[in-house]
Amino acid sequence: MQITEAGSGRAPTKPASRRGVLAVELGDLELANPVMPASGCFGPDLAALTPVDTLGAVVTKTVFAETRPGNRTHRLTEVPGGMLNSVGIPSGGIAEFRRTGLGGYAGLGTPVVVSIGGLSAREYWRVADELGECGHSAIEVNVSCPNLEHGGATLDTDLRAMCEVVSGVVVRSAAPVLVKLSPQLHSIAAAARAAEDAGAAAVTVCNSFPGMAVNVERRESALGNDTGGLSGPAVKPLALRLVRSAAQAVDIPVVGCGGIGSATDVAEFLVAGASAVQVGTATFAQPGVMARIVEELPALTERLGVDRIADLVGTLTPSDRRIGNEQR
Amino acid sequence: MSSAAALRVLTGDRGRPMCERAPVVVNAPLSDRYRLLRFRSAAIAVRARAGQFVMVAPVTASAPVLPRPMAIYTRNAEAGLVDIVYGVVGDGTKALAEVAAGEELQVTGPLGRGFVIRDRVERILLVGRGVGICAMTTVAQDLAETPAQVTAVLSGRNRDAVLGGEVLGACGADVLTVTDADGSSAVDALRGRLLRAFDEDPPQQILTSGSERLTRLVAELGVRWAADTQVSVEAHMACGLGYCHGCAVGDGDGTSESPLVCRDGPVFGLRG
After folding, report:
1. Which among A79, B42, B161, B231 has the fewest CB atoms less than 10 Å away?
2. In total, how many domains does chain A have?
3. Contact A301/A22 with Cβ under 8 angstroms?
4. What is the pLDDT of residue A72?
5. How confident is the model at residue A18 (pLDDT cuts 50, 70, 90)?
6. At residue B3, does pLDDT exceed 80?
7. Average pLDDT, whole number, for chain B?
8. Does residue A51 fall inside a structural domain?
9. Sign of the C-alpha dihedral computed for residues B186, B187, B193 and B198 taken in this order
10. Residue-level pLDDT at A157
11. Distance from CA of B133 to the nearest CA of A (A)
12. Distance of CA A42 to CAs A45, A108, B82, B241, B266, Å?
């Protein structure tokens, strides 16, 4: 606090409420704090273990139009600094999702972001149509699904196809639409701009990184599906760079995701340009990690000398304007 | 692991799990191959049903990313203590071995569906191999004060790789140790021995864990003796609760991912 007050010359103000200090906005969506789970790394079951009503939002596992079984076993393997998964997004389908109260996410006491997927534009739109107004606060379009109408590559590798899907979801949704981009794009900036042009309220950067692990004894991949998505602390530097690139390219907010496991990690993503964050792999080992981060954020906000955590967003000093560089 | 087609989801109650940072009381070698870790958790010690498991993770910054599923070896509700047994086989268990007594361990549990033991079961046979034996010791704990006759067949490469004999013996079980070293663990030899021992007076229930070959033998004996058979299954897991879908066994024909080992198991009924 002192740093801000001294630097700005403002009179000391009454401390904002804790909610106010941590509040962030994703377009029209106001969140009590910037912390939410990454899709697939959270379940309503966790409410029995740790407070979830203190989170900024919860994000559901990606829901498809119909039931899908996901990939064959083995679906998980640990690698240094992270994990690889080839779970393959099993889904009970949108009808069951509605029947079970947003898959059990309704009633957790925090805004629900519904992650939707599809193997074709029509499937995404059908999920959005059938979701209707279900009490959810936002939709997150998972555009890292293989697109069967375009040769099976992930949807966001074809920006025109992605725009078609996203704009179709935006038209169908009263709630704000986030677009979760994959990291393996020619230009994350171009993809983020495309999502913005298609009407997205925010972009999530990013999904897991394609990777693999090899068992040399068996001459096999460690995963049943050969390749999978890398997540965890190992990807944090990669994700930070992508968040910065995306945030510089668009006016809509960026939700940062990749290896976050502490309050300091959250601040790093905010400084790099994210307005909110998603926590994924860290929850597996520490089911209460998100609640703990939310508890720690007010003190960190104060230590970093800002009144509100949102004041950190995009405050990374460009290298050519660093004081050290000027002196040289 | 047994193929999904042979697994039947049981109706055991999963109960209510909790997560906490539990103080480690003991973390020491149990034998050349295995270590015993005892942590203090009154809630888990009281709630844990036979055959349930916990997810454990060191809380240090350098710890591996994923927690490890561990069968509950013994629990002492009065003292609020829970024991797990593990072999140091990879980075996860190596990190676990480095947690000192007095330090904390992130623990989630009790998890999963345990063994379903019939009321007034008269004879029950436990057949386990290696660290798999540790999934069944809690059954003997529960039956210690009952008239049930518990027989435990403990298999391992050698005597040092056989666990649980003392715990099971203290619970009143008859313990039979078989090893690869002396050839007594060979399936044919074991089958002959069990037929001689039980053919006239077979057990009503047979439980197994730790070996596919032994699981097949148990399934075969279950059919012969019209006994209920259950297996505790191991799998790679991330969440232990079901939301990550990492431990799906699949139904074998690619149309369903169920069952999940963590949520629907780890104990399943065996179809004969």
Report:
1. B42
2. 1
3. yes
4. 85
5. very low
6. no
7. 93
8. yes
9. positive
10. 87
11. 24
12. 8, 12, 27, 10, 21
Whole-model pTM: value is: 0.91
Q: Phi and psi dihedrals of A78, rounded to 5?
A: -90, 140
User: Using the beta-carbon criterion (under 8 Å), do B65 and A284 form an inter-chain contact?
Assistant: yes
The domain that holds A192 is classified in CATH as: 3.20.20.70
> Chain B 33-92, CB below 8 Å of chain A: which residues?
57, 59, 63-67, 91-92
Q: Rounded to an integer, what distance in angstroms lies between the CA atom of residue A320 and that of residue B10?
A: 64
A285 → closest Cβ in B65, B250, B257: B65
Residue-level pLDDT at B5 = 56
Q: How far is CA A136 from CA A40, A59, A98, B172, in A?
A: 17, 10, 11, 56
Domain of residue A220, residue span: 2-315
Domains of chain B plus CATH, in order, are 4-10+114-234+246-251+260-270 (3.40.50.80), 18-111 (2.40.30.10)
**A286, B242: Cβ pair inside 8 Å?**
no
Across the interface, of A81, A87, A287, the residue whose CB is closest to B245 is A87
Residues 170-199 of B with CB under 8 A from A: none
Domain assignment of residue A219, yes or no: yes
Q: What is the dihedral of CA B53, B55, B56, B62, to 10 degrees?
A: 160
Contact status, residue B138 vs residue B53, Cβ threshold 8 Å: no
**Residue A222 and residue A218: Cα distance in Å, rounded?**
9
Tell me the catalytic residues of A: 145
